[in-house]
Amino acid sequence: MQLWTDLEQVPPGFGPSVVTIGNFDGVHRGHQAVLDRILRLARGDGASAVAVTFEPHPSAVHRPESAPELITGLEDRLALMERTGLDATLLVHYTLDFAAQTPEEFVSRYLVDGLRARTVVVGHDVRFGKQNAGTLATMVELGGQHGFEVVAIEDVGDSAGDGHQRWSSTAVRALLAEGDVGQAADVLGRPHLVRGTVVHGDARGRELGFPTANLGDITGLVPADGVYAGWLRRGTSATCASLATPADEGARGQEEILPAAISVGTNPTFDGVERRVEAYVLDRTDLDLYDQTVVLEFVAHLRPTLRFDGIEPLIAQMNDDVARSREILRT
Q1: Can you tell me whether residue 138 is helix, strand or coil?
Q2: Tens of pLDDT along 123-143?
Q3: 97 φψ region: left (φ > 0), alpha (ψ -120 to 50), beta (else)
Q4: Residue 165 CB-density burial (10 A; 0-12 exposed, 13-18 middle, 19+ buried)
Q5: How far apart, in whole angstroms, are the C-alpha atoms of residue 143 and residue 108?
Q6: By C-alpha distance, which of 4, 193, 222 is closest to 93?
Q7: E runs forming strands in the chain
Q8: What's the whole-model pTM score?
């Protein structure tokens, strides 16, 4: 996938293209369905499949006090978008100046002159341009003026079971806030992940026989406090292991994927006040992960954070957490 961080980086004469526009936070199954749609349209029309996305999130510019926490950091968002097979992504630096463009200016500059769009795929609730004045009807009208087709797509979701759940970033955030990483994975189409650098902690886990990797500089939405079964990945691959393809085998050969019990919380047994994310790699006391970037994938919620009256009941519970993690992860 080609990545352009400025419209000037788009090669002269690029196109024609099939384009979609969005934040794609989480790259959940709804996003994947949209990207798959533009891929199929592009392949059937001899065009390139292109996504236009934004950094930072527009809400962080217009309403920073109420902007949503991002499900995935930028590195993982782009890597997950690449997994879908996109030919290119245009990453737009979102500013107030950019937002001041009229709908006509945005379409003319980015979609027509920049990407030579033949088809534009958007949702029925699309909004673009100054004060979000552009709507689906606006896009259709501009498509008629500039010679591109507009394909409007419906919301998608899982209608199986009790009712219809829309696949959306809002739904994922709500599930993670409850610690329901299993349901979140159903919407995402993969385990939820966070990325961070391993930093020095209190070494209390090592003293108890469960040395943990403490994460700092975390990107990605940290789920509710509690203990989880999951995976720790370290190595050169920047993408989600559950989305790997045969072409990734070389990169995966340089990556370790290790079963882990993951703790999120303040460690109330020791009167902790700082919220931390730490992972114990099952049955491994020999790992030196300090200063390495790792990815944690959350597979299942085991229990809430608890306060224990002493070390012995804490160690007993940790042994149970490890046993349950091993069973869930089948290691």
Answers
A1: helix
A2: 999 999 999 999 999 999 999
A3: alpha
A4: middle
A5: 10
A6: 4
A7: 2-4, 17-21, 48-55, 88-93, 117-123, 149-153, 157-158, 165-166, 192-199, 213-219, 226-235, 255-265, 276-281, 293-303
A8: 0.90
